[in-house]
Write a structure and sequence with these properties.
174 residues, alpha+beta, Nuclear Transport Factor 2, Chain: A, 4-stranded antiparallel sheet
């Protein structure tokens, strides 16, 4: 049986299908970008010295990041709550609505295990993706960004999850 020889691959695929199945069905490139480039910009550091520093209050920023990721992956959170914690969330409301309408999505959650600031406005987030309480994707990497003074799950993190799905279609902004 293939699953016994490649359990990690099977788990990744299962997680991607559970998390991203509704995205593949609900999304198309309705924003006129042709899928060729993202309207969302990276928050890469401007200078090498900026990359070495983090936000003014790293503890508060980390707490906000953990809360944002918790809400984003909370099956009980409303679409409005998820929009509020996702970078450019309003533009991605259709994607988040699709998650909320899918019964399998209610089984998916995530636990942040670490946050590493890469600049005053960006961080790498390590998390465990869970399905029905079981970790299916340990030590996954994502990112968070400071958008207007509020730390949020980055569009890049959402797009990375979308790319895991073998059936995913183009998602606006990815």
């Amino acid at each position: 049986m293939v699953l016994s020889r490649h359990p990690r691959t099977a788990v990744w695929a299962a997680a991607a299908v559970l998390v991203l199945g509704p995205v593949a069905v609900a999304c198309s490139d309705d924003y006129g970008n042709g899928g060729s480039s993202s309207p969302y910009t990276s928050t890469a550091p401007a200078t090498p010295s900026e990359a070495a520093s983090g936000p003014a209050d790293p503890a508060a920023a980390e707490q906000q990041i953990r809360a944002a990721w918790g809400t984003f992956f909370d099956p009980a959170a409303s679409t409005d709550e998820k929009v509020a914690v996702l970078q450019n969330g309003e533009q991605l409301r259709p994607v988040l609505s699709a998650f909320g309408d899918d019964r399998d999505a209610s089984r998916v959650s995530a636990t942040v295990t670490s946050v590493e600031f890469t600049s005053p406005t960006a961080a790498t987030v390590t998390y465990d993706l869970k399905v029905a309480g079981q970790t299916v994707l340990p030590d996954a990497k994502g990112s968070a960004v400071d958008e207007g003074g509020t730390w949020k799950v980055s569009v890049k993190a959402l797009c990375a999850l979308v790319e895991l799905s073998p059936n995913a279609q183009s998602v606006p902004g990815c």
